[in-house]
Amino acid sequence: MAMFSKLSILLLIPLMVSCGNDKGNAPSLQCSNCRMFLSASTSTGNFQGVDGADALCEADANNPGDGVFKAYLTDFIDRGFDVPDWVMRADTNYYRLDGVLIKKTNALAQMTQPLDNAISTSNVRVWTGGTPHCNSWGDGTSGASSMYGNANSTTTYSGAGSQTCDTVSHVYCVEQ
Hints:
Layout: H1 2-18, E1 33-38, H2 50-59, E2 69-71, E3 93-96, E4 101-104, E5 125-127, H3 134-137, E6 145-150, E7 161-164, E8 170-175
Parallel strand pairs: 1-3, 5-8
Antiparallel strand pairs: 1-8, 2-8, 3-4, 5-6, 6-7
């Protein structure tokens, strides 16, 4: 019996090593009731790509320290509704860190408007993206632009307007 257990473990190791995503990251458990927070940190639109924005979320002072968080940014190249690295999950409840329900996503992993509650009570602008998108989040100059949202709004949390990429704004961070 003990031999069977060791053999089973040895057979599972290659399967566990082969799991993960195309960036070489280890697989993680996905949240079922996920959290979102507004970053304490701000940045221009130059995050050095979406991975840089994800790093901001992971190191942010508002990060609760348990879970993996990625930036709610779209560029439809590296991240977007129809790109595998989209940060939202279909049919999933998203909560603020204080436990207030923000919204349940639909079957397409989108939060339709209006939200049940704002993502934050802070009246600040938040980078959200779309088209344009600060040249895939690598441009912090006034020659590029991107969409922003209002953190304390249930209707303009994303896509509220366009701002130049040298503007300093917050990001939403989404638990994976």
